[in-house]
Amino acid sequence: MADMRSSIVLTVFSTASGIGKTFLAINIAAELARLNHSVCLLDLDLQFGDVCNYLRLTPTRTIFDAQAALERPLEKFRAEDFLLTYARGRTSFQVMAPPSALLESYNIQATTIERLVTALNHFDFIVFDTPKIFSELSLTVLDVSTIITFLCVADFVPAIKNLKTGFDTLHRFNYEDNKIRLVQNRSDSQKLILTTDVETVLGRQFYYNLPNDFAAARRSIERGCPLVLEENSTALSESLRELVARYINRNSSAAVEPERPTGGIFSWIKGIFGGRS
Q: First vs last Cα of the chain: how many Å apart?
């Protein structure tokens, strides 16, 4: 069914918690909507999804209800019956909520994802926020994705280990290189490990580096408004817009890559993980 879609499917995936995955997915959806695209954001963090909490939405029907409806012929499925509208000024996009009960989350089938992508193919973009695990369901999402944003924060050695494991796993599933976009969040925060060191360990440069701005992100969450829709621009909101501009091939400037250092902690990291040549 994935081949029948006409939507562009953008998935935000990570192997770590608390690094801004949901924040990024929401802002990607909001920025696409701000640019007058029709967008549907699906929260597939089935047990701990926070999209509706962030956006101050109260769902009455969820993906669990949509799955039951999809057991009937697809032509009878009315997507709007299971979607919430988030609106801010003239910008709006649709949201599908995760299950409201823990037991329901265990019963969401991978085939539901394929059917949903087909049922929602009238949207210009479908954006998935995913859990931080490899499962049949998450692999189905990755399979139907046009672009996988693999998000990370490379601040500690254990985080880099998880990043490399996840990145190598994606390659073992034979996803094409241009399908996976490595994006580093909080790239300019104070840390002992340099971005260039991590890139050498991964054997790939980051596609984009988002700046660190806890204050702006916190205000956005507290107000229930995606940062890209705030009236006052910040370095982070401009970077989020730039990332989306790259995804949809709008004119944008390339990020400047720092010079690669040698020695120091880099040699130690490389000795632990090895580098991809």
A: 36
For residues 104 and 88, give the distance between their C-alpha atoms in angstroms, rounded to a whole number: 31
Question: Domain residues of the chain, as ranges?
Answer: 2-273
Q: Give residues with Cβ within 8 angstroms of 168, minimum separation 6.
A: none
Say what the pTM is.
Answer: 0.86
Q: Which two tokens stand for residue 119?
A: 């049922």
DSSP, residue by residue, 131-166: -SS--HHHHHHHHH-SEEEEEE---SHHHHHHHHHH
- What band does 257 get if pLDDT is binned at 50, 70 and 90? very low
Task: Please state the CATH superfamily assignment of the domain spanning residues 2-273 in this structure.
Answer: P-loop containing nucleotide triphosphate hydrolases (3.40.50.300)
Residue pair 110/69 in contact by the 8 Å Cβ criterion? no
